[in-house]
Design a protein that fits this description.
The protein has helices at residues 21-28, 46-56, 67-76, 90-101, 117-124, 142-148, 171-178, 203-206, 234-243, 251-262, 264-286, 312-323, 347-369; strands at 33-34, 84-87, 107-112, 128-133, 153-159, 184-187, 210-215, 228-231, 292-294, 300-304, 325-326, 328-329, 339-343. The longest helix is centred in the last third of the chain and has 23 residues, at 264-286. It contains 13 helices and 13 strands. β5 (153-159), α7 and β6 form a beta-alpha-beta unit. α4 packs parallel to α5 (117-124) and α11 packs parallel to α13 (347-369).
Length: 370
């Protein structure tokens, strides 16, 4: 046996893989309610499934870079096909950006909390991850982010709406970041739930260091099919192509994406279903004394149970054990340890989840009185 450490990149010990243990449990026990990861509870449409089956018949052939699909995506933003890079989900885009811009010891600036994969992929290329806490009302602290920029800052990530907090960054704040001239990823993974909000895609015409990322894993409901895309200046996209793995997007996922783009009504239906779930969960949980749900523009709701006298972990454990509902606890933030996130499920699942949380807190109250 060789001593692998002699050969491994020296920063390997700081890399922790994205935790997918929950998914292993969920797939092995289909009776559980998967409300721990931000999926769409509605399966793909018949048209999407048909398109995938049709594409599978050509599965012996290598795919191209999807010029027709890229042109269709580009048209939505009034851009050209050369401004679009298609990918195996937007996680790949996050990874590509780190590989393009970051060398060991460089800094990647992230808000905290946010989607954990940014930090993981940054560390995988040896970055120092610099996080700036959101404000106490969970908004971007842009002055603090600007102060955290150093000559070694190579990438800034803006997730909008942010996962897990659910809010958009205001335009003037975003522009303060963009104007720094540092490669900036604007991750709009959840934007399609609120089409009344405009994409920041037009920025790529004026700023060649801005990348706008989208995914079909969320409102389109294709997380298992895997499709995402990046919008950027033509030259920036050509750099993506230099380091990309060829055939990164399968014929099946391209076909699914093309079919899904045709179904605007289906997208509206899925978004409306989700948004009704968000309203319901927020309304019900805000009636519980001490519980604070944060209204979200995504398919998740962050809740703070600190003032109700519970930790996020206690609620997550209770919902799992008593109701078979999988939720996600979040690390303590600003001294408050009650944070957990509900990824919206079907309306029935949302109701069960609300009931389970109310029952837990009701029991807790009784225990305290006794
Ligand atoms: C903000 C954000 N960006 C990107 C992703 C990854 O999406 P994809 O499935 O396209 O890789 C997620 C998934 O949860 C996310 O929350």
């Amino acid at each position: 046996m060789v001593e692998l450490k002699r050969f491994l990149v020296p920063w390997i010990d700081q890399v922790k893989p994205y935790d997918t243990d929950d998914l292993l449990i969920a797939w092995s026990r289909p009776e559980l309610k998967r409300m721990m990861i931000n999926e769409n509870p509605i399966p793909p449409s018949e048209k999407v499934i048909e398109a995938v089956l049709e594409a599978a018949k050509l599965g012996n052939r290598y795919p191209d870079s999807g010029p027709r699909l890229r042109a269709k995506i580009a048209k939505r933003y009034d851009l050209g096909a050369e401004n679009v890079y298609i990918s195996h989900g937007s996680s790949e885009i996050i990874d590509m950006i780190m590989r393009l811009f970051v060398t060991p010891g460089d800094e990647v600036l992230l808000p905290n909390p946010t989607f954990s994969l940014y930090g993981i992929r940054a560390k995988a290329v040896g970055a120092n991850v610099v996080t700036v806490d959101l404000t106490s009302d969970l908004q971007y602290d842009v002055p603090a982010m600007l102060r955290a920029v150093t000559p070694r800052t190579k990438v800034i990530v803006v997730c909008t709406p942010n996962n897990p907090t659910g809010d958009f960054i205001p335009d003037d704040d975003l522009m303060k970041i963009v104007e720094l001239g540092i490669p900036t990823l604007i991750d709009e993974a959840y934007l399609e739930y609120h089409m009344e909000h405009e994409s920041k895609a037009p920025l790529i015409r004026r700023y060649n260091h801005v990348i706008v990322a989208h995914t079909m894993s969320k409102a389109y409901g294709m997380a298992g099919i895997r499709f995402g895309y990046a919008l950027g200046d033509e030259t920036l996209i050509s750099y993506f192509r230099k380091i990309q793995i060829p055939w990164n997007t399968s014929l099946l996922s391209m076909a699914a994406a093309e079919a899904a783009l045709e179904e605007e009504e289906e997208l509206r239906r899925k978004s409306a279903y989700n948004n009704a779930g968000v309203e319901y969960v927020c309304k019900e949980l805000s009636k519980v004394p001490g519980l604070k749900p944060y209204y979200s523009h995504g398919n998740y709701v962050l809740v703070d149970a600190t003032d109700a006298g519970a930790t996020g972990k206690e609620i997550v454990d209770y919902a799992f054990e008593k109701s078979g509902i999988m939720l996600k606890a979040f690390a303590p933030f600003r001294g408050r340890n009650g944070f957990f996130r509900i990824a919206l499920g079907t309306h029935e699942e949302n109701t069960l989840c609300v009931q389970s949380i109310k029952r837990f807190l009701g029991n807790r109250k009784k225990e305290k009185k006794a």
